[in-house]
Amino acid sequence: MVGHTLELRGSPFLQEIIREVPGGERIVHCLQCGTCGGSCPNGADMEYTPRTILAMITANQRDKVLKANTMWFCVSCYSCVSRCPQKIPITDIMYGLKRISIREKAYQETDAPALAKTFTDLLDKYGRSFELGLASRYYLFNRPLAMLKMGPMGLSMFTRGRMSLTPTRIRNVDQLQAIIRKARELGGVS
Amino acid sequence: MKYAYYPGCSLECNSAAYDHSVRAVADLLGIELREIDDWNCCGATEYFTQDELAACAVIARNLALVDPQLDQVVAPCAACYLNLRKVDHLMQENPELESKVNQCLAAGKLHYDPGRVRVRHLLDLIYSDFGEATLRDKVVQPLTGLRVACYYGCQIVRPFHGTDNPEQPTKLDEVFSWLGAEVVDFPVKAHCCGGHMTQISEPQAFEMIRRLLANAEEYKADVIVTMCPMCQLNLDAYQARVNGFFHTDYKIPIIFFTQLLGVAFGLDWKKLGFGKEIVPAEPVLRRKLTAVAAA
Ligand code: SF4
Ligand code: SF4
């Protein structure tokens, strides 16, 4: 039994997740009870439920996990986390899988990485998010057709003063950028 | 009482009605909100998707900028509230992360000691620090006869010891019943609105929104009150598209809880940001509230 546990801990993919995600080492306590998948608003549309994903991480099924749609269907609602009897940070594990999948371009058929990149690029540049800039850049480059469907809605938001044409820029953008640069240099949480 | 205030990007523009009504209600209750000078975007869910350390550092910059005289910050937006709490919590739990985040902050000549600032939601403040008697005392326009669905969403009530019970939150329900409203059952009140899913998969997002609208209609709510800009945007601005997609005909106004508080306290509707919502709220509110006044 002890040998078995050690072997599981030894899964290289599990080790990788532990380095990537604060609290990731708690995966070894997963009971495979399925509470997480049952609580997930998008569980039914995921290729593998959160419970299955954790089992696959332990079983070192790296490629399959990184290609799965599971993490891209995660909307960070934390239902699973607040119900998990073992306090496993499932949402943060999903974030970790998204990051690895982006770094290795393993994702398939999702625009989520492009959306995230557009968003954080604007943040890095201005210090604030800027919806109109976000929507127009993201749609223009990724989903030009969807932009047409968005038209009427965008217009009604605009006429109600809910969409600005110019971004707000924080005063100390240099300071923010220095902080972000340092984070990139340190390259991760562990 | 003085608090630091972190409005967040949504409240600057697309959810200005939330910002206006938060400030108006806080003012009336004697809560002094001091906006954090030069605050930056919390990164929503998007920074964690790309770079965990940068995400934490970007968020921590805001905590580090809180005026040293103040030890509490009010954050109305669910994503900002969660992110600020999450980073404070992660830094407390994880010394290695704490040291790395502070190395990043040091590059901008800042520092943050985790635990220094308590992140709070206005709902919690109103509920715990003011309470029933004070709130009832302020009522100018009782909400009698108005059927209200209280929508909590996910990130304000869930982990990191949030504002309310994560499964069956009740504080918003209690507050509005103190103000005379008929608070309806709303079993999906802590379900997720889908967040940014509208940008990723519309069928998926629309189904999540539909479930919420259907539930509110089933319990005959006149209005849904929300505490989150994303929830408001998804349910309000996408309502017409959801109707088109499912051939339904929902016309449920979605307003911020502070707007309805302001109505009960007799504040000026314009100042509360009414008129910015896509599904108009004023006609229903005026009809319901004057019907009661006339009876
Ligand atoms: S709820 Fe927690 S313990 Fe149960 S399967 Fe999910 S992660 Fe494992
Ligand atoms: S946080 Fe993600 S995985 Fe967990 S219940 Fe919500 S959507 Fe599902």
Q: In terms of topology, how is this protein built?
A:
The complex is a heterodimer of chains A (190) and B (295).
Chain A: H1 2-9, H2 12-20, H3 35-39, H4 50-58, H5 62-67, H6 79-83, H7 90-103, H8 112-126, H9 131-142, H10 144-159, H11 173-186
Helix pairs in contact in A: 8-9, 9-10
Chain B: E1 2-5, H1 9-12, H2 16-29, E2 32-35, H3 46-50, H4 52-64, E3 72-74, H5 78-93, H6 95-106, E4 118-120, H7 122-138, E5 147-151, H8 171-178, E6 182-183, H9 202-218, E7 223-226, H10 229-237, H11 239-246, E8 254-256, H12 257-264, H13 282-294
Parallel strand pairs in B: 1-2, 1-3, 3-4, 5-6, 5-7, 7-8
Helix pairs in contact in B: 2-12, 4-5, 4-6, 5-6, 7-8, 9-11
The complex binds iron/sulfur cluster (SF4) (2 copies).
One iron/sulfur cluster binds at residues 39-42, 50, 74-80, 90-91, 94 of chain A.
Radius of gyration of chain A, in angstroms, nearest whole number: 20 Å
- The whole-angstrom Rg of chain B is 19 Å
Major β-sheet annotation of chain A: none
CATH superfamily of the largest domain in chain A: Alpha-helical ferredoxin
CATH class of the largest domain in chain A: Mainly Alpha
Low-confidence stretches of chain B are none
Largest interface: A-B, 68 and 67 residues
Distance from N terminus to C terminus of chain B (CA atoms, Å) equals: 40 Å
What number of structural domains do the residues of chain B give?
A: 2
The biggest sheet of chain B amounts to:
4 strands, parallel
User: Which small-molecule species are bound to the chains here?
Assistant: iron/sulfur cluster
Outline of chain B: globular
CATH topology of the largest domain in chain B: Rossmann fold
User: Percentage of helical residues of chain B?
Assistant: 40-55%
H/E series of chain A, N to C? HHHHHHHHHHH
Helix/strand/pairing category of chain B:
alpha/beta
